[in-house]
Design a protein that fits this description.
Pfam families: fn3, Por_Secre_tail. By secondary structure, this protein is mainly β. It contains three helices and 55 strands. 2% of the residues lie in helices and 40% in strands.
């Protein structure tokens, strides 16, 4: 097994064993980090509704037991009461939390708070914002509770109003005082009947007036032990929208951050953290057979056999004398790649399993050293003095149009070497070439280098940012000859107004390698993309068109970013040739790689669009943009087939209505795994812009297979409202609280559904998939703000509209 595992480390060097610690089993906890959600809702102040919760003071005090108003299940226990602590937490039940341990003792030490490995006494805690809190700058500090709705969909809302974090010493060994960072804020806990969901909802906050500094807050939920916790974590200089969730407690050394806050990064009004219960295994086994080794010269890779019940893994890495860093997001499968490391450096790496219930296993620790970078020694020209006279070719022609502001020849030559100019009729073995990218425009970010030898494959091409190197081979894998017969080699994503040095090296026994030409030019500004008209279809059959690169777009209606490299899109059979994808050998099954990364190659026709996640660095992005004229009336629907067999790579669909200048922050759709080419549920696009851009953005996991799309369609939905059909349908309950049910007749059993708010914004879309005879469809609205919504169902020429009130 180890041999096969090593073979799957596609860029692996030596592998070192990880020290394995004893097996550990973990108690059940019915909330898990994977079920937690960071989203936005609406923060609504309770005003005078409900009951004010009295405490003796606003500093380090507990209330009497308060009624939830219904049975709430948490950690396998049913609760009807809670006790509020002024420091931003509640304890379920009638027992008060310990005031002495009710908040982190220091501003930068969350492990001393209630959700910590040292605090076993306080259990069943819900902490929306646990710090040493006092009255806020707005005055009127108050605590309040109200239960709303009707059984079985009631909601208990608990509110801390107008509070502020108090100044605290930085740490037990540092006397520096961290001043108040949030001078005034309000927040709520919402407990949901039946679902047992928990929400933390935050209102707008006011920044403190002192120095901006990091302060650690404890935010999360805790069951019957510190290990039965789910905690929120983010950096202090990060938006609250970036908060992620991990298995606690905060004492765990893998959690470098608490929920860090800073006065320059305040919560956005309505920011909501949602904790959803889910089944957890009784035990969770630690991974075994772990190895760690080199993936590339700046990354390491951990391979292991997962233990039963593992859902994700906490990974940290530390260079000698450096700061411990945590790999985010938490990986979910083996192998795990840690990128962005320093070449030739020793790292200590830890791996820890996270169970479905949120508990964690024992630490597995090991170390490995990254390899050195690909460095070419100082080139040895036939005449180091640079006195050789080179014969310049008269037939050198830029390969991508006219010069767009780049300096292609001349300029300062690295000391001791001749500048070959643009072409060389009879070359020495090693020569230099230099060019400068333009300051702006297309020519500033891309350049083409063409090397055409008399014997294909008789030169290697390296590039560097300075004349001193180091030089990295481009165009193909290190140690092999560039296939010059394949056309121009492309250096992409270059820095504007920057000089680059290119070193062309002949190899073999001969001193020279015959005539070859070198051309480096800034790309001419290409023609702008053509906006497709509707309806539009694309099955990616090709051959693809060359715009900024070779065969880089399906048609002139598309653009591809980056133009080349593993994370560049291509027709599924062309990426290795036209984009320089790696691991072409893995297209054919072998004993070590029995399953190629792209087995199913199309859903219709003979080809598809493919993203080479198998070869791309982890978290690398690649965007394929479709330009469409959507100026006509009517909603539009986007459909396509999608495949992504395994891993945590993904595809997001974004929308721009201004020609790609900006895209919506929230994707129209995010797609994760799909073992076969499957039809994506229709995506409704509400655009009437003549300059609409639809972006297909793939994210790599450097995993075992690739992402593909095929059979793309954009249609205009035309339908008329059918009042008679609407009369046959019922919607209950209305007003709705957590959800509502809709009876659907046969005519609408496969309709597309769209829920819009009072502003006309689409808040939910789905495709019904009911029996042909019709049936009942459930709609979850627990995450929506209270208000009036419009539900539209469309099928063929039929349109039904229903009014829904959400409370």
């Amino acid at each position: 097994m180890l041999t096969n595992l090593q073979s799957r480390l596609k860029k692996a060097g030596r592998l070192l064993p990880v020290a394995l610690l004893p097996f550990a089993a973990h108690a059940q906890f019915n909330y898990a980090p994977g079920n937690a959600v960071n989203t936005t809702t609406t923060y609504t102040d309770l005003g005078t509704t409900g009951t004010a919760i009295t405490t003796a003071n606003n500093d380090d005090d507990n209330s009497a037991a308060q009624s939830i108003g219904f049975n709430f299940s948490f950690n396998g226990v049913t609760f009807t009461d809670f006790v509020l602590n002024t420091n931003g937490l509640i304890r379920l039940g009638s027992v008060a939390p310990s005031v002495a341990a009710a908040f982190p003792a220091y501003a930068q030490a969350p492990e001393t708070g209630p959700i910590s490995g040292t605090n076993a006494a306080d259990v069943n805690l819900i902490a929306p914002f646990n710090l040493d809190l006092g009255p806020g700058s707005a005055g009127g500090t108050e605590y309040r509770v109200v239960t709303t709705g009707t059984a079985p969909n009631r909601v208990c809302t608990i509110q801390w109003k107008n509070v502020a974090d108090k100044p605290q010493a930085a740490a037990s060994t540092i006397s520096t005082v961290i001043t108040t960072q949030l001078a005034n804020m309000s927040f709520q806990v919402k407990l949901y009947e039946t679902t047992n969901n928990i929400e933390f909802v935050y209102g707008a906050a006011v920044a403190g007036t002192g120095a901006a500094n990091a302060k650690y807050a404890a935010v999360g939920i805790k069951g019957s032990a510190p290990a039965s916790s789910v905690v929120a974590t983010k950096g202090s200089s990060a938006l609250w929208s970036t908060t992620t969730f991990l298995a606690g407690p905060y004492l765990d050394p893998l959690l470098g951050n608490g929920h860090n806050v800073r006065q320059t990064f305040l919560p956005d009004a309505g920011r909501t953290y949602r904790f959803v219960p889910g089944a957890a295994p009784a035990t969770c086994a630690d991974p075994t057979s772990a190895t760690i080794g080199n993936a590339t010269n700046n990354s390491l890779q951990i391979a292991f056999t997962p233990g039963a019940g593992n859902v994700s893994y906490n990974v940290t890495y530390t260079a000698a004398g450096g700061t411990t860093q945590t790999l985010t997001p938490a990986p979910t499968a083996s192998p795990i790649t840690i990128s962005g490391l320093t070449a030739g450096t020793a790292y200590t790496v830890t791996l820890q399993s996270v169970c479905a219930g949120g508990t964690t296993g024992a630490l597995l620790t090991g170390s490995a050293t990254t390899t050195g970078g690909t460095t070419v020694p100082a080139p040895a020209n036939d005449d180091p003095t640079g006195a050789i006279t080179l014969s310049l070719s008269a037939t050198c022609t830029p390969t991508n149009g006219t010069n767009a502001g780049a300096t292609t020849t001349g300029g300062t030559t690295p000391s001791g070497y001749a500048n070959p100019g643009c072409g060389i009729a009879a070359s020495p073995k090693d020569v230099w070439f230099k060019f400068t990218t333009a300051a702006t425009g297309i020519g500033s970010t891309d350049a083409s280098i063409q090397v055409t030898g008399t014997t294909a494959g008789q030169v290697r091409v390296f590039s560097a940012a300075t004349s001193a190197g180091p030089f990295t081979q481009v165009g193909c894998a290190a140690g092999t000859a560039n296939n010059t017969a394949a056309g121009p080699l492309r250096l992409s994503a270059l820095t504007p107004n920057t000089t680059y040095y290119v070193f062309v090296s002949g190899y073999g026994s001969a001193d020279t390698q015959g005539a070859f030409t070198i051309c480096a030019v800034g790309l001419a500004t290409p023609a702008p993309p053509t906006y497709a008209t509707l309806p539009y279809t694309e099955s990616f059959e090709g051959p693809w068109t060359s715009v900024l690169g070779t065969n880089d777009v399906p048609t002139v209606n598309w653009r591809n970013t980056p133009v080349t490299g593993d994370n560049s899109w291509r027709r599924e059979d062309d990426g290795f040739t036209s984009a320089g994808w790696q691991y072409a050998a893995n297209e054919v099954p072998t004993a070590n790689f029995p399953t190629p990364p792209y087995v199913t190659r199309f859903s219709t026709g003979a080809h598809s669009a493919r993203f080479h996640s198998f070869g791309s660095d982890e978290d690398a992005l690649g965007a394929l943009d479709l330009y469409v004229d959507m100026s006509g009336a009517g909603n539009k629907t986007l459909t396509f087939d999608y495949i992504n067999p395994t891993g945590d790579d993904s595809l997001k669909v974004f929308l721009s209505t201004n020609g790609g200048a900006t895209f919506n922050a929230t994707p129209l759709r995010q797609l994760n795994t799909s073992t076969t080419f499957s039809a994506v549920q229709p995506i409704i696009i509400n655009s009437t812009s003549a300059t609409t851009v639809i972006r297909f953005q793939a994210k790599s996991d450097f995993g075992n297979d690739d992402i593909g799309i095929d059979n793309l369609r954009i249609a205009v939905v035309t339908a008329t409202q059918n009042a008679a059909l609407a009369a046959t349908m019922s919607l209950y309950p209305n007003p709705a609280h957590q959800s509502f049910q809709l009876t659907v007749p046969a005519a609408l059993h496969a309709a597309s559904a769209q829920l819009t708010n009072a502003l006309g914004q689409v808040v939910q879309t789905r495709q019904l998939n009911l029996p042909v005879a019709g049936g009942t469809a459930d709609f979850n609205v627990s995450g929506l703000a209270a208000g009036v919504y419009s539900l539209q169902l469309k099928s063929g020429n039929d349109l039904v509209v229903k009014r829904v009130v959400v409370e």
